[in-house]
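FIELD: query
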Amino acid sequence: MDYGNMIVSSIVLGTLARFWMLKVDYRQYPGYPHGYAVHLSLGFIAASLGALALPALLDGDFAAVTFLVLAAKQFSNIREMERTYLLELENTELVKRGSAYVEGIAQVFEARNYLAMLVALVASIGVRLFELPGGIALAIIAALVLQRAMQGQTVKDIAEVEVVDLEFQGDEGENIAIGDVVLMNVGEEEIKEDWQKLGIGISIKPKDDNARATLANKGQRQAILHDVVSQLGVRLDVGVVGYTPLARLDLDTGRVYIMIIPIEPDEEFVKKAVENTPVLESSRRKPLQSEAGRLAAD
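FIELD: result
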């Protein structure tokens, strides 16, 4: 049986799905055009594997399907490659992503190759059952469903974010605080005046104990700082530690307090940047799903 049309159309649809899921956002990764070339090539390979699976099964060539196992190994190597590359870039960041954020990005790039493979497989099934229009329709539905399933929570889903005033405590106002939490001690008068004029404070109040445990994770707090800096900039340079943005945890309430001097000093957009920061998979905690956690929270 001639499977040429099925294979070609499925590869094209799977590769297009990978292209649709590939975008350069405020994090500027992957870089354009080199990052696009690498990931689209890998997406093409993944789509080819998905497109060939059904014809192999229909012809009874079950041994050929084992190449999917080899593909899984190669995609895990992609994850390692992305992790290594991003960790090397950490040395160039004024406010680092953190290892938890890096791992999350690496996981996403690995997973999206599997998505391209699945879209191609679904497309081949659609072409087989309903001709080309059916294959296109099923591929579009599969891409939308899979992309939706890949979307995780953001900070606004688990916490309430609000802009708050920075307080200057101590005999000479040298301690920058929010409420009872001291975030930084500033010795230089010039730096203290800049924080008084330009500094913005953010309070992140967890909605439940799951959110409290998640926000307590250092990787999650570092990711929030990095995302805000990536979008709004920061008044900071190498060796000038007095302007370093910080995120501190209130051990009594579980709130996270942030202090930052952004280059774009718009409080509303600082708040929005915090709210839209993704909740990292490696940082997510769910103590309320355990019996001990539920009883302790009551």
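FIELD: remark
The CA atoms of residues 122 and 139 lie 6 Å apart.
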